[in-house]
Automatic annotation (TrEMBL):
<dbReference type="InterPro" id="IPR014710">
    <property type="entry name" value="RmlC-like_jellyroll"/>
</dbReference>
<dbReference type="InterPro" id="IPR011051">
    <property type="entry name" value="RmlC_Cupin_sf"/>
</dbReference>
<protein>
    <submittedName>
        <fullName>Cupin</fullName>
    </submittedName>
</protein>
<dbReference type="InterPro" id="IPR047121">
    <property type="entry name" value="YjiB-like"/>
</dbReference>
<dbReference type="InterPro" id="IPR014500">
    <property type="entry name" value="UCP019307_cupin"/>
</dbReference>
Amino acid sequence: MAQPVDKQEPLTFRFADDGLVPNHPRWPMLVYPGAVPLPDDVDPAAVFEDIFGANGWGDSWRNGIYGFVHYHSRIHEVLGIARGAAEVRFGGDKGKVLEVKAGDVAVLPAGTGHQRLSGSADLLVVGAYPPFGTYDLCRGPEQHAEALRTIPKVGRPDKDPLFGGDGPLLKAWSEG
């Protein structure tokens, strides 16, 4: 049974193509600060896996966030901070550094650069993906031109990874 999440409007961040990281041409990155309550008596990663899975975001993993700039050009990604805290730069070298902590969720449209700058020793992140798209890991200038072609073709998910069919993602990522 998925834990209740605190319904909220996400923070939105838009990033321009910096020549290495394309970012998404239309859709913002969404951040839900403290959206997922994490009781002491449960596995915090399992809470995120249950919520994301219930909303159709699967292929989940548990780990951290790479310490190098990277993005995915063929799939969107959600990151749930299950434990600890980290400083993460989103959007590439000209992007924005945010501190994320346990309970926070970031939803990255395809193309959004991300890099862990620092993190607590106990950092644990759960990542997941919508039911369509192909995982890839892009980090070099030679991938930029192809990414510009593939990123806009990654369709909008049917559900917000936290709030399902009526979540803020559906409006923030309108097809317009």
